[in-house]
């Protein structure tokens, strides 16, 4: 790979996608849940939207997709 190809690859405008794992706090009752992300001990301040095919439940271990500045709970990890 040439330096020019590397620079082009690193500066591409493709959206950055990643996944996070966390747990919905035991105190969760309804609405968009906050998340205790792996490696953290306190729930997020932000409440995260979720896919309509998933119903959040307290203490679910969940997979979260992060795309750019947005994130969505994909569902429970079993």
Can you tell me about this structure?
With 78 residues, this protein is mainly beta. The protein has one domain. Helices cover 10% and strands 29% of the residues. It is built from one helix and four strands, in the order H-E-E-E-E. A hairpin with a 2-residue loop joins strand 3 and strand 4 (70-76). The radius of gyration is 16 Å and the shape is elongated. The N and C termini lie far apart (41 Å). The mean pLDDT is 90.
Summarize the structure.
With 78 residues, the protein is mainly β.
Topology:
Elements: H1 3-10, E1 17-23, E2 36-37, E3 61-67, E4 70-76
Antiparallel strand pairs: 1-2, 1-3, 3-4
Structure summary, number of beta strands = 4
- Order of strands in the sheet with most strands: 2-1-3-4
Distance between the termini: 41 Å
- Percent helix range: 10-25%
Strand content: 25-35%
Integer tally of domains: 1
Radius of gyration: 16 Å
Strand-pairing-aware structural class: mainly beta
Biggest sheet layout:
4 strands, antiparallel
| Shape type | elongated
Give, in order, the helices and strands: HEEEE
Count of discrete alpha- or pi-helical segments spanning 4 or more residues: 1
- Contiguous runs where pLDDT drops below 50 for at least 5 residues: none
Give the overall pLDDT as a whole number: 90
